[in-house]
Amino acid sequence: MAGHEKDAGEGLAMKQLWILLFNYRLRALIKKEFAQTRHDRKLMFTLIVLPVIQLMLVGFALSAAVTNVPLAIVDDSRTPESRELIATLTESKSFRLAGYYSSVGQLGDAVSQGKADAGMVVPYGFARDLARDRQTTVQFLLNATNANTATISRGYAESMIQRYNTGLRNQGIKVHFQPIAGSELARRGQAQLEPAFLYNPGLVDSWFIVTGVLGLLLILDSSLISAAAMVREREAGTLEQLLMSPASTSEIIIAKITPLFLLLFLMMFLAIGVLKFAFGVPFHGNVLLLVAGGALCILSGISIGTVISTFSKSAQQAQLTCFFVNPPLSSLSGALNPVEAMPKWLQPFTILNPIHHFATIARGSTLKGSGIIDLWPNFLSLLIITLVLGSLSVWRFRKQLS
Amino acid sequence: MRRMIAQMRKELTQIVRDWRTLALALALPVFLLLLMSSALSLTVNELPIVVQDFDGSAASNSLVDAFRASITLKVVSWPVDKTAEEALAANAGRAVLIIPSHFGRDIARGVNAPVQFLVDASDANTAKLVTAYAGQIATSYNQQAGGAQTGPIQTAIRLWFNPGLSSKKFYGPGIFVLGISMFPPLLAALAMAKEGELKTILQVYVSSIPAHEFLLGKILAFMIVALAECLIMSLLLFTYFGLSFAGDPTPALIATVLYAFCVAAFGTMVGAIIPNQASALQAVAFGGFLLVFLLSGLIFPVENIPAGLRWISSLVWGRYYIEIVRDALLQGGGWPAMWSKVLIIGTIGAIFYGLAWRGMRRMQVKA
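Output (structure tokens, whole complex):
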């Protein structure tokens, strides 16, 4: 389709497309492909059932949330004050008690053996220092092998001890002494940060992940399956027969991808249903945007597969090449992790990645409720990626045949 | 024994003959390791945030400067006449800091002034990180300005094993395991399925080689591939990633050999049970890639998986090897922490071998 548009004017291309879509030959070819696809029960299964299972598995299983970090404790103070501090930490959702140890050395062993991911050492003079209004230092050890978990649990620990401090200060004011009014006035005011979480106030992790993985599955499945379908004809040696027929290359390609596209489209609807009903992703925006983005995403995935198939001689080679292409495509998409976490020089390349654009569209049109005004750059990029890859595959296909 | 070696040599010749396969076996894991270890991290740098300063006083300027000085956050410009929500909807920033008018006056009068921080929480993890960073910046701003009293309890936080909080060191060993879990079984499955597809398995049956020697020869060949990958990738880990053995390396070394056996046996098993190259490939992609990638604690901790699904992850062989490799390179817990995991890898490998043997007996019927 794209190949035809390239060498014709705009109006002519439209007319050609119209003729192309409604001519008898094409319809017959599509019918043939449908018949072939219908016989392939395994394909139907991998296309419809597997993605839904994968989406459920990934959405329920993957979460970057940091809760219940096992905390080992050395309490040298053994006073009500120290026990209160320990309870403040371990009773929270962020940490859970992994055990008491008698020395710092034992605590270190527990952390390195993985029995605990964090450790706290309350010093001997803790309660005494507090009673005398002196500063006291609590040591906190964190297993930092996972940088993300460590950063978040450090934040938890700091804010909890901060809160405990504030509680102490208020208590102190009540029991011990009345602050002099003058010093209160001389104090400078504080900037109080008041965070508000938009679009996902409950901070549900799975919403981010399932919207990203949806794009990932669309691209992975469509590229693998279209590569296999395109190459099968060549392997069986029936491609020559097709070429002997009066059908043009574009017609052959369009006929080949139509049933795949429809199947994948059906799969996408199922997946969107999973997002809505299994994960409760809110649909604040227009569902049509999501569907349109998904359709473009499928088309670009199919074009990736078609291009790959033109470089391969057998189904095995085509699938192996998919293995070369897909892992970097999925890990450099921002589907599972933020784009800002990638190295700087790789970040611009996300523009070439259909998964990235679809993830942005999916998150925008569901969670954020963005409209086409915000999302048009992503739609445009998806369209360009699809057209470029589509024409490349038609060109390669023709070149191979001549 | 001689027959086994011959079988192994035949497999290795077949691998070396095809450049695409050879590249897949040796170059792609290295490529993946370099690419994904840096691409996978969840810790962010230079997150764009939008600042709307409605005050413009000296106090508000110094607060904005405090945000500007941070490495993790990057202040980007946004037109004043557009709302904060529009900035988030257009993906201009991950968060918006709104400083109200009267901010400077309130602070000077000794009144606490609220500063709104709107966070795009569609990515919950990043939202938490941004909020934590912003909170730290605000606290240090208050302390510098002399407004906040320091509490009686101070925390001295020490980060063990990875004090620089480098994600590379955490993900490097994980991707190393992913590479080994993916490519050797892929090749093994294809080689085994091919025997079934091309019916060459019948020739094996009529030859004098017993099933065990045939299987072991095949597995040995792909173990060599796996160990070669291991060697290349660990060179990379020791040089580019700057990792070294943190403690006793013997558990990791023994586990590596067992794991190489485990993945080679897995691939052979899949090929024997599904004697069809395309379907075998899909099965390996599911087991070697998807399960190890998602359910082994490679990116997201296993503890976060809900209890109903967590049992699946305890069947994923890659999970134990990831723990062993991370322990050897980062924590150094040694045998007391790792002996059970080494044992489990060996057991899973033996199960795969048994299933491969059973599958091979049935292949004769199918072929």
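Residues 2-62+203-401 of chain A form one domain.
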